[in-house]
Amino acid sequence: MSEPLVIQATLAAFPIWIFMVLIFIVLAMVVAMVSLVKKSTMRAGKELEERYPGERIVLRDGGNFFGLKSRGVGQVRGNGLLALTEKRIIFKQLIPSKWFEILLERIIDIEHPKSFLGKSVGVKLLQVNFTNDEGEHDAIAWAVREPDKWRETIMREKERATRF
What we know:
The protein contains 3 helices and 9 strands. It has 164 residues and is an alpha+beta fold. The protein has one domain: PH-domain like, CATH 2.30.29.30. It is elongated and about 70 Å long. The protein starts with a helix and ends with a helix. The model has no long low-confidence stretch (mean pLDDT 87).
């Protein structure tokens, strides 16, 4: 019976200004992280343009990487910049810094599963099934804002690229 009194006494002894400072610190950390991600994404956009000069960027947005099937389930998810050019899909993962590239002619199909490699965020993902450099079927997936738009645009660009 004395436990509720101990908790009330502890909370009463804890000054309100400490709560306010903690809230301020958490908010400052969130703002700093958002700013860091935005700056990193802008830097990745410049790197993308330098790395693929002359390629028309058809679509580009942030994406959350869910992994590459051939590398198994132990991969770290991460935010980055996803871009579609007239020749390829490119993803620049921010942390750790990695580049992924899929030529449009190697794409087999695109799906929208709710999970990939045992990972899920409760939304439709953009899963690209393709033939890798070793000639084997592979897959890669991201959480993106408009997965249907990405699928339609990728398939349209793939058709254009393979027509010539």
